[in-house]
Write a structure and sequence with these properties.
Number of strands: 20
Strand order of the largest sheet: 6-5-14-15-16-13-18-17
CATH architecture of the largest domain: 3-Layer(bba) Sandwich
Strand content: 25-35%
CATH superfamily of the largest domain: FAD/NAD(P)-binding domain
Helix content: 25-40%
Structural class: alpha/beta
Bound molecules: flavin-adenine dinucleotide
Shape: globular
CATH class of the largest domain: Alpha Beta
């Protein structure tokens, strides 16, 4: 059995959460080993929104120059009914908002955020990253965790040039098929279909939801002038909503439309279990997508209809969530802890999944710096600090799902509330002001 040379923390999954955790640990002076089952970082996904609760942490990690270069800084969020062009409610994201929370609200392509995190992790130099390494088994012991890793030969050529730097593989791990290691603690940052969660928390359920997310990114210059956007715009309709915002310094437009679809829960659950490559992506035929758009956009304003007609390439994502966390025990047991989507899958109705993984990462590193505590106690400190916050965000995302997609009287009441309360509903100090 090999022993890892690091301080003993192994993180499974180099997504937003895993990269963030290795940065936060490195900045506190701790090394970590990061396992990633993919053998290259792909440009998967589309845009994400980051509230000041996340950008404040990214700023502390030295990533503000990257946000200034790659992100867009929308000036406002505007909410519309999907069949009208007059604004129902508006939140100003300008200087006043930024001063209040000490950090900006930005919108960024996932790939740009991932590459910024990756470069920062390399610059800090405390991470031993192993691409093509899948965690396949674990045994939680009183003095550490026995883990099993399946490795595949690396193909560095598949990494984008800036992501293929020196540390993609160092240390003593050979390319044998399966390696067993004894490590001090294991962090499962392996996403919604987490293997760590499945092995350590076999009874925690993940739910396939009827929501499909259609996502597209398009250069703004290819769109007619009236469809180009520089703020965040949210359109609310029955069983659907659509969010549009700029990314890549404002040059591209990101569109995400969440539409409820008649669906087969068994099929969705099975496809999640079997699809290890891209857990969320869903194959939707062109005809099925056109029909889905036609039904969901029935009655939508001409502007919204035009946008969907102007964009050809969409990816479809089946969405999963879980019941909100009910105790710290669901995030931490002994020497194993969960972080990000692995711990608290949520629907993207509050745009905070990545945000919570960044917050988790920062709190994990803070807890790890309590060197007077045992490794298990440090993880417990992390779980105690995070579970309630994550549960609250999960609950709010569920509530938003019902409110955003309401129809009939419920929609009328929602719109009245938005018109009367406006900014007071859209601004959320409990969310954005978290420290
Ligand atoms: C449509 C949509 C819109 C969204 N919009 C927003 C938004 O606006 N704002 C926001 O904050 N969030 C948003 N999110 C959520 C956000 O994308 C996720 O919450 C975030 O990516 C979670 O990061 P993670 O690191 O926990 O998981 P992931 O990003 O899924 O990363 C998990 C990593 O683990 C690796 N892995 C998996 N299994 C193993 C294994 N066994 N061994 C080793 N590695 C493994 C995977 O390859 C992957 O790289 C959105 C999500 C969707 C679907």
């Amino acid at each position: 059995m090999h022993r890892l040379m690091s301080q003993g923390m192994v993180i499974a999954g180099a997504g937003m959460g895993g990269l963030s955790a290795s940065i936060a640990m490195g900045l506190e002076g701790f090394s970590s080993t990061l396992l990633e089952r993919r053998d290259a970082f792909a440009e998967l996904g589309a845009g994400i929104q980051l509230g000041p609760n996340s950008t404040r942490i990214l700023k502390q990690w030295g990533l503000m120059p990257d946000l200034e270069t790659y992100a867009a800084w929308p000036k406002q969020i505007e909410v519309f009914r999907f069949d009208q062009s007059s604004v129902l409610a508006k939140l100003d994201l300008g200087a006043h908002f930024k001063d209040r929370y000490g950090a900006p609200y930005v919108t960024i392509h996932r790939a740009d955020l991932q590459s910024s995190l990756f470069k920062r992790m390399l610059a800090i130099g405390q991470t031993d990253l192993r691409m093509g390494s899948t965690l396949v088994d674990l045994e939680n012991q009183h003095n550490g965790v026995d883990i099993e890793i399946r490795t595949q030969p690396l193909s560095l050529a598949q990494n984008p040039p800036d992501l293929s730097a020196a540390q993609t593989m160092k240390g003593d791990l050979d390319c044998s098929e399966t390696t067993r290691l004894h490590v001090s603690v294991l962090i499962g940052a392996d996403g919604v279909s987490s293997e760590v969660r499945r092995l350590q928390w076999p009874h925690r359920r993940i739910n396939a939801t009827p929501h499909l997310a259609y996502r597209a990114t398009v250069p703004q210059k290819l769109l007619p002038l009236k469809l180009r956007q520089h703020g965040v715009r949210v359109f609310l309709g029955p069983q659907m909503h659509c969010v549009q915002y700029p990314i890549r310094g404002g040059e591209w437009l990101n569109i995400v439309a969440l539409m409820e679809a008649p669906f087969d829960a068994d099929h969705a659950n099975n496809s999640m279990r079997s699809s290890l490559q891209h857990a969320w992506t869903e194959k939707v035929s062109l005809d099925a997508r056109r029909e889905h758009f036609r039904l969901a956009l029935k009655g939508a304003s001409a502007e919204l209809q035009d946008l969907f007609k102007a964009v050809d390439e969409w990816s479809a994502w089946r969405l999963f969530d879980a019941n909100p966390l009910s105790s710290a025990d669901q995030m931490v047991q002994g020497r194993v802890a969960l972080l990000g989507d692995a711990a608290h899958p949520m629907l993207p109705f509050l745009a905070q999944g990545a945000g919570m993984s960044i917050e988790d990462a920062q709190r994990l590193a803070k807890a790890w710096s309590h060197q007077d505590l045992s490794p298990g106690q440090r993880l417990q400190t992390y779980g105690n600090a995070r579970w309630l916050r994550n549960a609250r965000v999960q609950r709010r995302a569920k509530v938003n799902a019902a409110v955003f997609h309401a129809s009939g009287v419920k929609a009328v009441l929602r719109d009245l509330g938005l018109a009367v309360l406006g900014e007071r509903l859209l601004d959320m100090p409990w969310l954005y002001g978290y420290r």
